[in-house]
Write a structure and sequence with these properties.
This protein has about 325 residues and is α/β, with parallel strands linked by helices. The protein is about 20% helix and about 25% strand. The protein is built from eight helices and 13 strands. The strands form three sheets. The protein has a six-stranded mixed sheet with strand order 10-9-8-11-13-12. A five-stranded mixed beta barrel has the order 1-2-3-5-4.
Length: about 325
């Protein structure tokens, strides 16, 4: 074995040739000080459609971001060709800090989290009053996900021309959730559209609901076709300039009026990622009563201090029932 002394000549040291002819790697990363801020509108097979000022720009994630992925609603820093012209591609070099992240899993046993949308303010849970029948367990799961993400929930009930909302309102009335009731006739006349838009004003609202509840009809009424074309013409999803709700898509409600994020229809809403201890934060009238609870109390056991708190008149018993229904929803299937 050849040994090198303390004062080895450079010619004595062998080095492997760089066969690719490219520059050696470096830990120094460019700062991209000229990057421009944009908002991710939709993601499709590694291509991200972004809004930069008033232009639609197609971009891809820069390699330096590693495994970190941008999702709909993210504020990102973009470099490269920002003209938005056909066959141009920019690069996303930074992802801004998120104010909220709405997640779900395929089911309660699936540890893989899917981010639905980032930086949303509100979650609109769309449910039909009939055809198909309401699924309260799925609504409960969406509410838990909203509470966990720090989003304000909004209950949107469609097809009131087929059934009355009284039963559903009785079930969720004690949660003090804002709601809107719509019918097909009101959507066609625009009366229901005005009521819904009032709840969405200056907010980023994600819409969720299972197939057949009328979510797409509602979205089409809220966002005129010309606005959809101006945002999705790069092809948000299918390559043909038409959104088919196979991935989330952010749509503007108007100049400064807010954003609507249309999401694919869900068959289930897994809550594997949710820590049940955080659900209590959505019940500020009950939260002080947990101070005397046993350590790691599930708030649904014999020694829970909330029973005495409610019995002393500090809160409505119906609110405690609602909390426990939310907490137990992970142990039931949506079809129960």
């Amino acid at each position: 074995m050849r040994r090198y002394g303390k004062h080895t000549d450079e010619d004595d040291i062998r080095s492997r040739p760089n066969r690719k002819g490219n520059r050696p790697r470096t830990h120094t990363r460019p700062k991209h000080e000229d990057a421009v801020e944009g908002m991710v509108l939709t993601v499709d097979r590694g291509r991200l459609t972004c809004l930069v000022d008033d232009r639609i720009v197609l971009a891809m994630k820069a390699r330096e971001l590693g495994r970190k992925a941008a999702v709909v609603g993210d504020r990102v820093a973009i470099v490269g060709d920002l003209t938005g012209n056909k066959d141009t591609l920019a690069r996303i070099v930074r992802i801004g800090e998120r104010t909220s992240v709405l997640r779900r899993t395929a089911d309660d046993d699936d540890p893989y989290e899917r981010v639905v949308v980032a930086n949303a303010d509100q979650l609109a849970i769309v449910t039909a009053l009939a055809d198909p029948e309401p699924r309260p367990r799925l609504i409960d799961r969406c509410l838990v996900a909203a509470f966990d993400a720090g989003l304000e929930p909004l209950l949107v009930m469609t097809k009131s021309d087929l059934a009355q909302p009284d039963k559903l309102l009785e079930l969720y009335g004690h949660l003090d959730i804002p709601y809107v009731v719509t019918s097909r006739e009101e959507l066609e006349s625009g009366a229901a559209v005005a009521r819904v838009r009032e709840q969405l004003y200056r907010k980023i609202t994600a819409f969720v609901g299972h197939s057949g509840v009328g979510k797409t009809t509602l979205v089409n009424a809220l966002v005129p076709e010309e606005q959809r074309r101006s945002t999705g013409h790069v092809n948000a999803v299918t390559g043909r300039g038409r959104h088919t709700t196979t991935s989330a898509l952010a749509l503007p409600l108007g100049d400064g009026e807010g954003w609507l994020v249309d999401t694919p229809g869900v068959r289930s809403f897994g809550l594997h990622h949710v820590d049940p201890s955080r659900v209590i934060h959505a019940f500020p009238d009950l939260e002080p009563g947990t101070e005397n609870c046993p350590r790691a109390c599930s708030h649904d056991e014999p020694d829970c201090a909330l029973d005495a708190w409610v019995a002393e008149g500090h809160a409505d018993p119906a609110r405690l029932y609602s909390l426990r229904r939310m907490l137990s929803t992970r142990e039931r299937t949506e079809g129960d």
